[in-house]
Structure formats: structure tokens, C-alpha cells
Design brief:
single chain, mainly beta, 7-stranded antiparallel β-sheet, 10 strands
Length: about 140
């Protein structure tokens, strides 16, 4: 919000499962659920309710070539599995009020150990996804 619009009341939204795009120059745009992002939008920020592995696409590995990803567990428990290029897997248990940074380019996936809510800040572009049974594919978001 810039100073010219300071007299206009800001829009109020339900923060749960409502995502924001952060663009060049610090601008924010409400995007609701992830959708089409402009090339000028570098990051997606959101809070997501997670009840099971399907809510975190737990059967899919992902990695972000455009930057690190921050994951914070607000409620519940989540297991983050990291897999660098050497194929060795490391599991990290994240409990309520704990967070971590997934380094750029590291394959990872989540498992919901206890339902809750997670906060994430992730690169908007350049992510790759793959399941155990197929090869990596690029994704626009």
C-alpha cells in the first residue's frame, strides 16, 4: 500500500488458505489460492490448513531453483524430508512454533504427523515436481 492510498481502508481477508504474491519493489497482491502469477511476482506467502498428506502433496517431491523456501508450523506437527542430489534422505520434525529453511535446489516433501497450520514463503517461479514413479517436470509456480 502506498502513501497516496493511505486514506482508503485496507481490504480485510481470511488469512487461512489465502495466499499473497510479493513482487518486485515490495508490492503485494492477493491471489487467494495459487494461480497464475506475473513474472514480476517473486514470492508466494500463505498459511495453509493441513489435515493429511494430500494437503501438502506428500507423495510429490519438489525443489525450488529460484530461491530458498521458509516453512513454519503454526499448529500441529509436520515431518520434512530433504533429499540432496546424492539421494540421502534426512527427516526433520517440525512442531508447533518451529520453522526451517529449505535450501534452494534441494528436493523435499512433507508428511503431516498431526493436523494443523503451516506458514510458507516460497519462490513464485522455477519449481520442479516429481513423484516416485515419474521424472521431474517444471512447474510455472
Amino acid at each position: 500500500m502506498n502513501i497516496e492510498n493511505a486514506s482508503v481502508p485496507p481490504a480485510v481477508f481470511d488469512w487461512l488458505d489465502h495466499f499473497m504474491a510479493l513482487g518486485h519493489g515490495g508490492g503485494l497482491r492477493q491471489i487467494g489460492k495459487p494461480g497464475r502469477l506475473s513474472p514480476q511476482e517473486d514470492w508466494v506467502v500463505g498459511i495453509k490448513a493441513v489435515a493429511n498428506d494430500a494437503d501438502v502433496h506428500g507423495d510429490v517431491w519438489e525443489r525450488h531453483g529460484a530461491g530458498d523456501e521458509m516453512l513454519c508450523v503454526l499448529e500441529g506437527r509436520v515431518v520434512l524430508t530433504l533429499m540432496p542430489d546424492d539421494g540421502a534422505q534426512t527427516e526433520v520434525l517440525l512442531e508447533a512454533c518451529e520453522g526451517t529453511v529449505v535450501p534452494r535446489g534441494v528436493w523435499h516433501r512433507l508428511h503431516v504427523a498431526s493436523p494443523g497450520k503451516i506458514l510458507f514463503v516460497t519462490p513464485a517461479h522455477g519449481s520442479e515436481h516429481r513423484s516416485e514413479h515419474r521424472r521431474a517436470s517444471s512447474s510455472p509456480t
